[in-house]
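Supplementary Methods, section 5.1.

A reviewer requested that the exact input to the structure prediction be made available. We therefore reproduce it here, unchanged from the version used in the analyses.
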Amino acid sequence: MSRPRAADLVLGTVQLGMPYGIANRVGKPSREEAVRLVTRAAAAGISQIDTARAYGDSEECVGEAVAANPSIHVITKLSPLAELAADASRDEVRDYVDMSIEASLRALHRSRIDCLLLHRASHLHAYGGAIWERLIELCRSGTIGTLGVSAQSPREALAALDSSEVGHIQLPFNLLDWRWRADQMAARVAARPHVTIHARSVFLQGLLAVNDSSLWPRVPGVDASAVALRVHVLAGKFGRISAADLCLAYVRAQSWIDGIVVGMETEEQLDDNLRLFARAPLSHAERAAIGALIPRLPEQLLDPSRWQRCAA
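The structure derived from this sequence is encoded cell-by-cell as follows.
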C-alpha cells in the first residue's frame, strides 16, 4: 500500500488472552478489563486490532468489544494446526483449516474475517500447498478479506513477498534488529506497494522499554546492562522522552512499515502508547544515525523463540 505517513498504532491482544512477555509484571487481565481496554482503544481512534486463534481467549475478548463496531479492522491468525499429523490427507488439512476459520468467526461475532494471517509461515507451502489453497478459496468466496503471513525472520518475509496472493505481512522489528537492514526489506517492499507491512516486537517483549537488565535473557556475547544503557542514552541524545518513545519513533520512521502492533494489558499502557504515537517519528537522518550507533547483536537475542535455548 502507499505509505504517505508514519506507521499507525495497531492494538496487539496476545496479553489479553494469555500471560505473555518477559517483562510483563501484570499478567493476563480479567475478561471485563480486557473488553474495556479494547473498547477504549477503539473509541480513542485505533482502527486495527491484531489477535490470533492461538492467543487463548483473545479473539473472544475482541469479538465482545467490537461486535457492534464493524468499522474496526480485525486481523487474526490461523490456528498453528499443531494437531495435524505430518502425513495428513488433503481433505483432513482442509477440514482443520475450516474448523479454525469457523471458530474465529464465532469468537469475533463476524461473518467475514477482515485479514487472516498464517501463524506459521511454513504453512504457505506445507502439505503440498493444501492449507494455502483452501485459504485462497475462502478469500475468493468472501469469507476472508485479505490473506497474509506472520513471519519470524527476513527469510520468511521475503518468501511471503514472492507470493502474489499475500496482501499482508507481519514481522518482528525493533531498533536492535539489524537483520532487516541487511536484507534490504525496504526495496523489496517498494516493489510490492499493495502489501501491508505491520511490525511487532518493537519493544522486544518489553525489554527495550524498561531499564532493568535483570529481565534480559542470558545470551552469550550480550552485555544486557550495556545494551539497555545504550538505548536509554540514545533516547536522551535524540530528544525522546523515554526509551519506549525512541523505540516507537525509530520504527515509525521506516517508510516501508504501515503499522506497529503494540501489545497492552492495561488502560494505563494504552494511554501511554497513544501519547507516544502523538509525537513525531525520527527524521531520516536521525534514524540512520541510530542504526549506525547500535551494535550488531547475536540473532539469538533478536528472536525470543530462541531465548530459552540460549539461557545459561
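The two ends are 43 Å apart (CA to CA). These observations are discussed further in the main text.
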